[in-house]
Amino acid sequence: MTQLTTPTPTARPAAAPSAGSRAAAVGRKLRTRLLHIVPVLLLVTFGSMLLVDLTPGDPAATILGESATPDQVAALRQQLGLDRPLFVRYGEWIAHIAQGDFGRSIRSQQPVLDAILERLPVTIELAILAQIMAFLVVIPLALYTAYRAGGRADRLANVVTSGLVSMPPFLTALLLVFVFALSLRAFPATGWVRIADDPLGNLRSAFLPALALALTELAVLTRVLRSDLIATLQEDFILSAKAKGLPTWYVLLRHALRPSSFSLVTLAGLSLGRLIGGAVIVETLFALPGIGQLLVNSILAKDAVVVQGVVVFVAIVYVALNVLTDVFYTILDPRTRVTGA
Amino acid sequence: MRFLRSRGGAALAAISAALVLLAGCGGSTQGGADEPSGPPQSGGSATFGVTGDVSGTFDPAKLLSVSGTIADGTVGSLLYGGLVETDPKTQQVVPVMAKSLTSDDGTVWSLVLRDGLKFSDGTAFDAAAVKLNWERHADPALASGARGVASSFASLEVVDPTTLRITLKDINFQFPRSLALFAVNWIASPAAIRAGTLGENPVGAGPFLLKERLRDDHMTFVRNPAYYDAPRPYLDQVVLRPIPDGAQRLNSAATGQLDGLVALTRNDAVQGEQQGLQVLSVAMSGGTSMYFNFAKPTSGDVRFRQAMRLAIDNAAVSEAVEQGNGPETSTFFAPDTAFYDQAAAFPKPDLAAAQKLIDEMAAERGGPISFTFLVDQRNEQLGTAVQTQLAALKNLDMKLEVASQFLPTQRQASGDYEVSVQNNFNLDPEPRIGLLLQPGNARNFLRYDNPEMTAVMQAGRATQDLEQRKAAYRKFDEIVNRDVPWVLFLRANPNVLWDGSKLRDISVFEDGIVHWDRVWRAGT
Question: Where is the signal peptide (chain B) (predicted)?
Fold first, then answer.
């Protein structure tokens, strides 16, 4: 999504822009990105409605259960408006969304926005915890393995991260449950404790699912950051810093890390969005009351109104994170305030 | 107490009990209940794993059927109790909040309620409340899952505060079974109905009250002090935890997060038993079966269906799908159920006889017999096991079509299949098997039409006398073995598992809903 010209780490900005021009550049970028949201949202919401419509099953039959006659099912379809063409239903839905009305669940009659907001804290907390866990490992590991590239630790880290990347999240989750819940009895196998009820219990209930999400992310992020760091460490300014006698940790953290972080920031921004939208498997496996489980249950019940609402929400989060990522570039590298699209 | 007894003399009370509940595993309790374990103690809490959250709201009109396989059944029973229930030991419908339900002619029924019933809001649970609830279910705007049952009423008349006269549109001596199976069994407070708050703040007369809910995480119920059957319930609190994955429910029990759980597969029950849990399995007749479309040339040929029956070895299918842990499947009616008849066993596997039938058809048609076996993803393993066995037959070409979860059911309903699979398990042939075999009925996706079978099912439906019903279903077995409308592969017996050191006096009704008002916690 980002349209950046990748800067060469050795290049230096020609002149520091003023605070006013910096704000104007960020404002331009925000406006452009916000305009991009509209077609993206239209595309994904229509696509999701189409997919829900194409999946077999009839929400009316599901609601009425096995005692219903075909006439009763047909009557409910009409009552729910399911007998009307897809485009008509989509148009009506868009019109309601434009007025801030996400509609109500076909099955539970709960307002969709309430349903999302009720589950949002769980998913957000999981995503943030997973990201924190990943970064706690990624930065030191990537710095060390890049600094000692080709060494024993680097090779071992490569093997481990390759393994983690190739493991599907459900397998990771099951292994974590087996080791930490069933064998060590250190964490619960399922369930959620609200932070307001018991902060420590909340962390215990979130640890395994967040770790399951973090492991895949950290493997990808470590490999990306390591590669960028290895390239940066070959640059003259690093050699120059070393020649000045600066300590290694200082060179790595202050000189090498920042210019190597572009890919990391891009991926981290995208992965946060992916974590929010993609917690489906982990939330189902750990029986967590988050957005992922809401989505799964709504798809199974063919509750298109809820599915649409969740899709819109996730799309907004995804696009917003993209915008934030772009804005963050302008902080990481002032040249993008001028050259960034 | 007179219940389900025709005034004409047919004595349903004489129905002899046939034990149903299996004790097929070491940690299992016998019969439908835990071993007696001393006087019940009041207090304490139980946390129980169910297969999901409620499918709609807490309004009875939005809860689906009275089944332990979904959360709706347990939740509805906790909140609303029930007018009647089916005892899985005897398959007999017995009164709970009703005092009796009687009919002379199968059309006009008299429902008499217990005296002094109260909803938890203090209002009277009377015949007018039942009438109001049932009329709601019939309202199309409400889209109730029990609308089919409510639509079968020609009229409802409040005779006195505890008596409701129900006139059905058609004769049905098995009406109490429909009442027990669907949400019409749960009566909510008319005051709460009128207030329009029932969905989130349910008011019933069941043993527990809803205290708190976090959707998809837990539902907490606390004891109803106004419950009619004091000193029950014994527990102060029941927490239901929706955990969709069966293995994770077991894991949660292993880590002490759950005191008990529902297990839908025999494998899960066996694993739970290995974990030291007590297991109570409800024997259900029927199960996962191969169904034939009688309207298609190949599957409509009785020789083909008989060949399938003879070629498929259920033991091998069970070995492939459930590691041989499943109950036996030699008859349609499960052993120890009222209509079980060992003499009605399906023919034993006979590949040579099956080959002869297929060869005969192939010779007539001038080529090999081809057909498609439509299964959903959950039954792919079953489909593959069947395909492997049928590969032994020459002149037969089976294609396995694996479709997404709901597609086979849709295609069955529309008749767009030759051979397919469905999980159809029941405590009694009525009402579901009766509808499945009724010509012209929407549920008859087999397109089966045999007047002899129709008469037999009608005979089973039209009497309350057990011996007459047994006679009817012996004939049913004969016709099933002759016509082969399905090939039964696996039984699907729901299981309740619990930690016997914590929970006592577990018993179930219907297909495995725990009597939570009777359960107590040890050491409280």
Answer: 1-23
